[in-house]
Fold:
Amino acid sequence: MTSPVYALRGVEQIYGPRTVLNIPELALPRGELIAVLGPNGSGKTTLLRMLALLEAPTRGSATLNLNGRAITGLDASIEDRRRVTMVFQRPLLLSRTVRENVRYGLSLRGSQANGQQVNELLEKLGLARLADARADTLSGGEIQRVALARALILSPEILLLDEPTANLDPSSGALIEQMIRETHQRDGVTVVLVTHNIFQAKRLATRAMLLLDGELIEEGEASQFFGAPRDPRTARFLAGEMTY
Structure:
């Protein structure tokens, strides 16, 4: 493994009496599409927030490597943070139109939105007919697609996705998967995807990992992870057996 974009060492995240994340060591290579699997409460979203520089570990270090610089959440500049974009499981939109929501991130950066780029994103995500609709009229699937468009318009180097297709209909889920795959393959964006959907992880991921009760059970290339897992707990989880 070369040129890790993230390096975690001795990481513990503790909320009150509970240790929600305990990862002795983890290195995530640049340019991969990494699926993070595990049941509810396994620490997946906590890990994603740490990678997004939204919170620092209670113990240990979580380092983002950009241009040869090691960056932690405590010393990341605004420009550093802008290179990492996270789409939350329950995204919040502005009380504006779909088009204005997609443009919003660029306006915060003082950049003019490229109208053609906005239109192309809306078209690819099946939102073109809703460009002038207000956010409070959208369905859950439409909100998820707008949130993804709002992230992609920023051309991030790292895209962090928390259950981007949870509870969506198959059509909306397929559109989002297609955009995730295209963004990764065409632009070389590093993608970390938290998902409960094992089949989605198999379709998309180049690497995968399993978290159980905050512990990193296994991480590796997708072919090995899904085809010949090293840890019996991974095999049981992938087989749908109760491991929690």
User: Anything to note?
Assistant: The radius of gyration is 18 Å. Residues 170-187 form the longest helix (18 residues). The chain has a mean pLDDT of 89. The beta strands are 4-15, 18-29, 33-37, 59-66, 69-71, 84-87, 158-162, 190-194, 207-212, 215-221.
